[in-house]
């Protein structure tokens, strides 16, 4: 086999090096993009998962294993041994071995030790007593205190191994700087902890320490170790409070906790390592976590520790938060991937078809001379594989280098798929064209060939699939999306392309007759040439239609995301900028802000966040406004516009104030007058007359807006300034307002809505996929024109011998190319518009546009973006005209005789 095909492959590659290099470049580029896509998905999914775990508070993400105090079945010596660090360290190692993969543990932030579970009241009067209530403390002997803290005063506590028992009367301890400050503890202070065996245990403070990583899991899993808490006495009508702090004992002092009244427990805190988590391992990660919480891994951990050990964590909720966000974004990415992948597939098929057409005469001659179809296909496969395999390897290598730290297998499979398509396109196309021996082939003009029954059945099948995918997506949405629903835009584009190809001859036939009556021959000749296009033009039309549909869909998604973020930022701020002070703004500040560069409008508000309506305990935000200025602001920002007379204070002082309310507030209080107690102690009577779901002053679901003229002087004092204007200078505003007031800019607020690498990475991948699809569409157009280039050059040469001028030749090529390009552009625009209209009800952009916990929720909906429809279609027409003009210019530079000889040689 090798000796039979190798000379053929070498000869053919040497005979057409340009075609081989072109195929190699195309395969390398496509393989690189195909391999980069899954690796980019892995990168941003991993980054999103790691950010979600890293941003979660350690008390939620840490896995806490707790075992109660040793049971009475142990002797006192055994109980003390179980509380010593050597035994706890051995158990900790066993727990680490029982943690199932892929759950990764960060040993640097993990810890173990013993602590008292019940706070103990101490009688020492030097400790802070904010309401005369004695302070309470907990004792903790946690591993690694020296490595996670710096001594600020004194020294770290000490205890020799084996010297501390349950009956020990005095031990050493340290406290953090925050605990020392709040509880008034100094180096040398002695805290007497209630004991069970022989009276109080004296805990002498030998040092005050500062945490090295206060926000790390070591200190923040149980934040009481770092920061004391002010706890209110339960059921106390006076709401008295006491300080609760932690005393940090050396690990060897753990047995002394058995002699206290604090109910000691043993614990092992396992901090997850975000760097070891991967988004593609989500299912295994959840299974591992479930196993450790209540499954085989928990049983194994109990074998190493205690049969009563329990595991508590909120890491599963953190993973669920990430998974919901990923599930909302993934279907949108799949739509872009299907679109770009389809266009790339068409380009590879067109490249094979172009090579087959270029070598049609050669292959037909070989078949006529006795070459078998199998042997011919194998030789062609050897040619393409020799070029495609190394080119794909280069593309895969480039993808791996460009996007490191991701899985190799999906990228390799994607590159392999590209290689297979590129290698098989030419052999299969040639096998289909030359399955029968013949030198001359029949005409394959669009106007001459009738669609076969098989083609009709295939088209109807695609139509049913597309209709089912669209209907499913409209009903179920993208939350439960599968491959069929993600391919819905592509299926719609395919159906549109097939329909356009069937309808394509009709307008050409209709225009040919009027054009024949014109004086010039260019119009009639161009229509005749366009009508004689090959039926294989369905591939470029399919690619262009799919690319334009994907570009329109992708552009509309990006526009919808942008508009949703703009609307959410506007709702959160209320205008272009917001200046707010809880206690009221200085009287001179509004004038100073008004003179700041970029400020064109200013509206003063007085907002009482703690107003209490109807004698209820719950609060309701009430904003006092100037009705005229506020109505203008609401109309300008499109946030609940209303008629100014509906909010203006009535002439009678005894009449209730008209109020604008949110739907929930209106439902709770109705339209009858009711009384509100303002923050300054005064009362107003209001009646809801206007209901709006949003308003510039407040962004929550409960609010009330009234005329400031009906408020007391103190209640009407401005607390908020809403600013409008283009090009607001945030730095200048802050220089004027801070520190007397806080400044929030709409543009800065908008930037906060992309708070997850999952969102930003998905958006970049989406834009890249749409851009790649558009690039392949242009390449499709170029390949389509290149396919007919030799025939066009020969035609122009013959016509020039009959007197055709260069200008007429250029016009002929442009007019000949416009019908198909115009059909593709028009079909792409219509298909993109129809696809968006059909799929919009089932697509939610909220997950991609906004953080799940945004304070200003707005609907992020898909709608048609005019620029996304018009720009790609216009680009197709411009590229077509440009290529045709360049081709006519280039042909005009060569002599007619030379061109005709070249054509005859072909």
Mean pLDDT equals 82
Taking all Cα atoms into account, the compactness measure Rg is 38 Å
| Count of alpha/pi helices | 30
Share of helix among residues? 40-55%
- What structural category arises from helix and sheet content? alpha+beta
Instruction: Describe the global form.
Output: flat
Distance between the termini: 31 Å
How many extended strands? 21
- The domain count comes to 4
Indicate the low-confidence ranges by residue numbers.
901-906
Strand proportion, as a percent range, falls in: 5-15%
Give a quick account of the main beta sheet: strands, pairing sense, barrel closure: 8 strands, mixed
Task: Give the topology, please.
Elements lengths: L1 H14 L1 H39 L2 H4 L1 E6 L7 H7 L2 H14 L12 E6 L3 E2 L14 E7 L6 E6 L15 E7 H7 L6 E4 L7 E11 L5 H4 L8 E4 L8 E8 L15 E7 L11 H13 L1 H9 L5 E3 L2 H44 L1 H9 L4 H30 L6 H25 L19 H24 L6 H4 L1 H16 L1 H12 L5 H10 L6 H36 L3 E4 L8 H6 L6 E13 L6 E6 L1 H11 L19 E5 L1 H7 L4 E4 L5 E9 L12 E4 L12 E5 L5 H8 L4 E4 H6 L5 H31 L1 H13 L4 H34 L6 H4 L16 H28 L2 H10 L1
Parallel strand pairs: 4-10, 6-8, 15-19, 16-18
Antiparallel strand pairs: 1-11, 1-12, 2-4, 2-11, 3-4, 5-8, 7-8, 9-10, 13-20, 13-21, 14-15, 14-17, 14-20, 16-19, 17-18
